[in-house]
Design a protein that fits this description.
Blueprint lengths: L3 H22 L4 H15 L12 E2 L1 E7 L4 E7 L3 E5 L2 E5 L6 E2 L12 E4 L5 E5 L7 E2 L4 E2 L1 H12 L4 H16 L10 E2 L1
Antiparallel strand pairs: 1-6, 2-3, 3-7, 4-5, 4-8, 8-11, 9-10
Length: 187
């Protein structure tokens, strides 16, 4: 959503709208939640394509898991997910549209996708704060390739160990560089 106060403001508005949409609309697919969020976020911020209007958007993954069938249904706005099925890494790209922000009806597509999960499968979702962090010996971004490799190295460990490894790797990478963005990492 951005950095500092504008990013925090967008996160607060987005969180409030998502809660309202989910309570109001009941059992709707993730893509419907993203479409509603897109419309309401632009309306709340009075965003359109006129010059001088705010162009803040939000990247997000909405997913649901049917706990009886273990079926995962999800839709994404610019954020990927990584799933491990039978120890195989599946990288799921997000759609090319964020919610809110610039609006062009031809561009905004949020589609539901699904995946049958089995006991022991893992799902990872994360904000761009982790892969976009500058650090290392020459101050480069961490990037998605390193993140995929990190998960490949740790996905078979207990979640508590994974948490500690993800957290310490980020700190070691960042070292003395300022933190670029908020970081959310769920597994």
């Amino acid at each position: 959503t951005g950095h500092g106060v504008p990013g925090a403001f967008m996160s607060m508005i987005g969180t409030t709208l998502i809660k309202d949409i989910c309570l109001r609309e009941g059992d709707k697919p993730p893509s419907s939640i993203l479409r509603s969020l897109d419309i309401e976020l632009r309306s709340t911020l009075n965003q359109n394509i006129e010059v001088g209007k705010p162009n803040d958007g939000m990247d997000i993954v909405v997913c649901e898991i049917d706990l009886k069938t273990n079926y995962l249904r999800y839709a994404s706005a610019m954020r990927p997910m990584i799933v491990y099925k039978n120890s195989d890494q599946i990288y799921i790209k997000g759609s090319r549209s964020s919610v809110g922000g610039h609006y062009d009806k031809a561009d905004k597509i949020f589609e539901d996708q699904g995946l049958q999960l089995s006991k022991g499968d893992l799902i990872y979702m994360f904000s761009d704060g982790y892969p976009d962090q500058f650090g290392g010996s020459i101050g480069k971004k961490y990037k998605m390739v390193r993140l995929k490799n990190l998960l490949n190295d740790i996905h078979e460990k207990p979640m508590e160990e994974q948490y500690n490894y993800v957290k310490s790797t980020f700190s070691l990478w960042k070292e003395n560089y300022p933190q670029v963005d908020d970081v959310l990492f769920m597994g």
